[in-house]
Amino acid sequence: MERIEKLKEFLVTDPHDAFVKHALALEYSKLGDDTIARRYWEEILERDPSYVGSYYHLARLLERTGEQVLAIQWYEKGMIAAKTAGDRKTYNELQAAYEELLDL
């Protein structure tokens, strides 16, 4: 919880810091609090769709909570964003998870 509190302090300085929000989402996800983790990842991607690192984690969370249709949509959005950003590594990770979900 100490890490979460420290990250929240950083958000006071810059409430839109995607890096800090992503780190918070990861911390909450580790604790099993998918609701808060999801909220942070959705906020990041709503504000900054080019923050490609959050697509994978949000989609995996949605898979884990049984929301496969939404997970597929986020993987697809993430692949588009990663391709646009020229981020081949993230694109490949998203594509592999997407194909695994679709059982291709």
What is the secondary structure topology, with strand pairs?
Blueprint: H1 2-13, H2 18-30, H3 34-47, H4 53-64, H5 68-85, H6 88-102
Helix pairs in contact: 1-2, 2-3, 3-4, 4-5, 4-6, 5-6
CATH topology: Serine Threonine Protein Phosphatase 5, Tetratricopeptide repeat
Number of domains: 1
Name the shape in a single word. globular
Given as residue ranges, the uncertain stretches (5+ residues, pLDDT < 50) are none
- Summed up, the helix count is 6
- Termini separation comes to 39 Å
Percentage of residues assigned to helices: over 70%
Major sheet size, sense and barrel closure: none
- On the 0-100 scale, what is the average pLDDT? 96
Structure commentary:
The model has no long low-confidence stretch (mean pLDDT 96). Helix content is 81%, strand content 0%. The protein has a single domain, classed as Serine Threonine Protein Phosphatase 5, Tetratricopeptide repeat, CATH 1.25.40.10. With 104 residues, it is mainly alpha-helical. It has 6 helices and no strands.
Quick recap:
This protein is mostly helical and 104 residues long.
Features:
about 100 residues, Serine Threonine Protein Phosphatase 5, Tetratricopeptide repeat, globular, mainly alpha
